[in-house]
Amino acid sequence: MTAPVDPRAGWQLPAPGTMPRTAQLEPLVTRVLAPNASGMTLDGTNTYLVGAPGSGQAVVVDPGPADDAHLAAVEQALAGRDARVVAVLVTHHHGDHAEAALPWGARFDAPVAAASPGVAGPGGRVLASGEQLALAGTTLGVLATPGHCSDHLAFRLESGAVLVGDHVLGRGTSVVTHPEGSVVDYLDSLRRLHDLGPSALYCGHGPELTEDPTAVLDYYLAHRAYREWQLLAALVPGARTVAELVAEVYAAVPREVWPAAEQSTRATLAKLRAEGRVVPGAGDSVRLATP
Q1: Which residue range or ranges hold the Metallo-beta-lactamase domain (predicted)?
Q2: CB-side exposure of 73: number of CA atoms within 13 Å?
């Protein structure tokens, strides 16, 4: 099997570190970039302000880190939209997306909504897939997208764009966390997102993907299949530890992201074990199942 080609390689996307702090992506959406860039968060966490122009209202999606400079940038963007916050939505519980949710909910006197009660907080709203949220003069559709983690959500806009959180990144591929994530769930969520035919993917990290969103989703599915093939091929000579598998399969990836790669590897091995294709070996090792 050959490695799939990332369609974004030929797109005119902003280079790492060059994304503007604030950008209007469409009449409904303003993106504000948090100052928490890293190997895992790329340029930083993308916070989205969603609302119909002239409504005087906005929904904050993924407030991100509890950072004073980020809050100031978001409040400046809200002033530019002449809008007040009427709700805070969170795609998932990871701190780079959810840390500021409850503090900002209190600051803006706005309810917090998420799939997890712990993120929504006391008096918050626990969301379920299929809900239609009429907020800020528009409607956001709730789509459960577990896989990256168990409580992950996406939000579909009236324009056809989807706020995908960490399910899809603007550059590279997403991590399936372990043990809270699931490769089986992740693949199913990718297929359901693909079936929506999104007009754009507004990612939790990295630039927006507008040129051919479904091609990116096809690539993500192919990439996961390729990683499975690599792991199985690496096990042909015999049992290997997870660390050994990561070093071989992710040899071309910067070492700083190997801890995340280890999580995805463990999640993929869990899928392969459930399918009867690999079995535990000694210690932290795994081996191919005997036919």
Answers
A1: 44-205
A2: 21
